[in-house]
Design brief:
Strand content: 35-45%
Distance between the termini: 136 Å
Number of strands: 17
Order of helices and strands: HEEEEEEEEEHEEEEEEHEE
Shape: rod-shaped
Length: about 260
């Protein structure tokens, strides 16, 4: 009898636990991977860390925790994006998971959400500040140069190129991806570097120029941490620098008729 009572209590306990588990998950829409609670930014301290910062034109996921104490499957969630220039909700209505497509003009605004229970009880809004910013840009101010070098000087040549960079994020660094094309048209494996946005340089080390002719350095991608987060690449204009290496003549010996 005691064993039976114990089994009944255990069964009841398991059923109660299962019921509570269902209750805790009943309004949930699966949270997209890679999301963190607002305010837990990992990009470093700056004025932009106080807001959620995204690139213009980005399509970004947002998610809010449902009230786990409300039973039922019909809670609804109303998302508000303001001002309209910031962007609009393009998926998720009326769930607790929303997709927002941001506009093309840099804007500071807010994203808010309110949960309404199955009994039509509306909650108070949760609101965060959101800023959309321009993507970074890169271009070469001087597009070409020519040098005459001896073989030894050519092999030892270190070329420093300083493209013009811009970023709206002010985190201090821009990511560049570039390739080098040699005089016979062979293209190198892309190289990725993080450079300071104000004085960013691409350094081609000694040993790069193994022959005479026209070499080209092409920027293929430019990003900052926000454009990477937003999956919106930067803009490249005048992205190719041409470097022509010509041989410095090595004047030969003088020949003349011998004395007799």
């Amino acid at each position: 009898m005691i064993m039976r009572t114990r089994n009944l209590l255990l069964t009841a306990s398991l059923l109660l636990t299962a019921a509570l588990t269902v209750k805790a998950q009943v309004n949930e829409v699966a949270m997209p991977s890679g999301l963190y609670e607002h305010g837990s930014n990992a990009g470093g301290a700056s004025a932009f860390e106080a807001v959620d910062t995204v690139s213009v034109g980005a399509v970004m996921p947002y998610w809010v925790t449902p009230d786990v104490d409300i039973a039922g499957t019909t809670s609804t969630f109303a998302w508000t994006i303001a001002p309209a220039a910031l962007g609009s909700q393009t998926a998720g209505t009326p769930t607790n998971s929303a997709t927002i497509t941001f506009g093309t003009t840099p804007t500071l605004g807010t994203v808010s959400v309110i949960e309404t229970s199955p009994a039509s009880c509306g909650g108070s809004p949760t609101t965060i500040d959101v800023r959309s910013i321009a993507v970074p840009t890169a271009q070469f101010g001087t597009t070409s140069s020519t040098e005459c070098l001896t073989i030894a000087a050519r092999n030892a040549k270190v070329l420093t190129l300083t493209p013009t960079l811009s970023t709206a994020c002010n985190n201090g660094y821009v990511q560049l991806v570039y390739t080098i094309t040699d005089p016979v048209g062979a293209v190198s494996t892309p190289t990725t570097v993080w450079v300071p946005e104000a004085t960013g340089t691409i350094v081609l080390p000694a040993g790069t120029f193994t022959s005479y002719g026209v070499w080209t350095v092409t920027i293929t991608n430019v990003n900052d941490r926000i454009s990477i987060k937003s999956s919106v690449p930067g803009t490249i204009t005048a992205g190719t620098y041409t470097y022509t290496v010509s041989k410095t003549p090595e004047t030969g010996k003088i020949f003349h008729r011998p004395n007799i």
